[in-house]
């Protein structure tokens, strides 16, 4: 069972809040609360409130569905931070020599998803097959899927490899036969010369 909580318009930039969120993502709720409690980051206070809100939402949805859920077994399934508005929230800061620096007041939105399922369980998602295009319905080259084309390419590559290997073995056998015939002709020539010498 999943429960969700979000905290919007928290003071501070999303980049700084993500440093805190990365420390608690995927951990048990008690571990996450302990990390947030003793963290020195300013964003940790708002994120801790959001985690507690998610735990309370999980308890309430479990009571409504008549399901028993132990709050200590909950874990943070997902946690992410979105950037909030900065438009029309610019301020001026005094700077040296009568200048003024413009600074933006950043805000962020934190969303936390808490689950009671085991962390190792994989959610089964339905895979949707893509609809056939009009070209594929008409037939022709577009009708053949890419996998088959890739298979044909592999088959042609394998056949070309086997042909080259066969041609190499044939060339080697021809070389061996040529060497053997040369050796035999040399032996035959030597034997003829010996016969001639003996006859003389």
List keywords for this structure.
alpha+beta, 3-stranded antiparallel sheet, 5 helices, single chain, 200 residues, 5 strands, Ribosomal Protein L22, Chain A, two-stranded antiparallel ribbon
Write the layout of secondary structure elements.
Elements: E1 2-11, H1 14-24, H2 29-37, H3 44-64, E2 75-83, E3 90-94, E4 100-104, E5 107-115, H4 134-138, H5 146-199
Antiparallel strand pairs: 1-5, 2-5, 3-4
Helix pairs in contact: 2-3
Question: Would you write up a description of this structure?
Answer:
This protein is an alpha+beta fold and 200 residues long. It has a domain at 2-115: Ribosomal Protein L22, Chain A. It contains five helices and five strands. It has helices at residues 14-24, 29-37, 44-64, 134-138, 146-199, and strands at residues 2-11, 75-83, 90-94, 100-104, 107-115. A three-stranded antiparallel sheet has the order 1-5-2, with helices on one face. Strand 3 and strand 4 (100-104) form a beta hairpin. Helix 2 (29-37) packs antiparallel against helix 3. The longest helix has 54 residues, at 146-199. The model has no long low-confidence stretch (mean pLDDT 81).
């Amino acid at each position: 069972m999943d429960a969700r909580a979000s905290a919007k318009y928290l003071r501070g930039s999303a980049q700084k809040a993500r440093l805190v969120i990365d420390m608690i993502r995927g951990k048990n709720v008690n571990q996450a609360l302990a990390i947030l409690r003793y963290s020195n980051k300013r964003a940790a206070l708002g994120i801790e409130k959001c985690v507690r809100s998610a735990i309370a939402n999980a308890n309430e949805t479990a009571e409504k569905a008549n399901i028993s859920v132990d709050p200590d077994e909950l874990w943070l399934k997902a946690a992410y931070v979105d950037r909030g508005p900065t438009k029309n929230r610019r301020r001026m800061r005094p700077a040296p020599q009568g200048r003024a620096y413009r600074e933006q007041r950043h805000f962020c939105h934190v969303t936390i998803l808490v689950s009671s399922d085991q962390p190792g369980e994989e959610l089964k998602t339905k895979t949707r097959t893509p609809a056939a295009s009009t070209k594929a319905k008409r037939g022709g080259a577009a009708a053949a899927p890419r996998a088959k084309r890739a298979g044909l390419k592999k088959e042609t590559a394998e056949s070309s490899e086997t042909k080259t290997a066969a041609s190499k073995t044939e060339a080697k056998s021809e070389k061996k036969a040529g060497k053997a015939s040369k050796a035999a002709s040399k032996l035959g020539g030597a034997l003829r010369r010996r016969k001639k010498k003996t006859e003389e």
